[in-house]
Design brief:
Blueprint: E1 9-13, H1 20-27, E2 32-39, E3 41-46, E4 49-54, E5 61-69, H2 71-80, E6 85-91, E7 97-103, H3 112-115
Antiparallel strand pairs: 1-5, 2-5, 3-4, 6-7
């Protein structure tokens, strides 16, 4: 009997990972998610890609969607993101902790507690 993989992680998307066609080609299915926002950041464009800029300003926020994903989904998302983008863990407006991608080469310094969670 086939079981769906257990969704134990949260992934916050603010760009193309929110679109059904990208989800189908990257994960092989449409992801389950809900609207949320990431406070203290704003969007900036870098080489035709959206990127997060950490501002420390509580009035800045980025709207997006938080998805329930598996560890395997995270590996697929890692492969999908362009070179230079890293996955870090953040706290969303709802209080949910989630992974998010940002360009490490161009983003402002991250808070200590977040930068220690950067994956390699």
């Amino acid at each position: 009997m086939d079981h769906e993989p257990e969704e134990t992680e949260r992934l916050f998307a603010y760009g193309t990972l929110q679109t059904e066609s990208v989800q189908l080609s990257t994960f092989g299915r449409k992801l389950k998610g809900s609207p949320d926002a990431l406070p203290g950041y704003r969007l900036q464009m870098i080489e035709h890609h959206r990127n997060l800029e950490f501002t420390r300003n509580s009035s800045d926020f980025v709207d997006g969607t938080v998805f329930s994903v598996t560890q395997q989904d995270l590996k697929r998302a890692d492969a999908y993101e362009p070179d230079g983008y890293k996955r870090i863990q953040v706290e969303l407006r709802s209080g949910t902790e989630a992974w998010v991608y940002l360009n490490q080469l161009t983003s402002n310094t991250q808070p200590e507690e977040v930068s220690q969670r950067i994956t390699s």
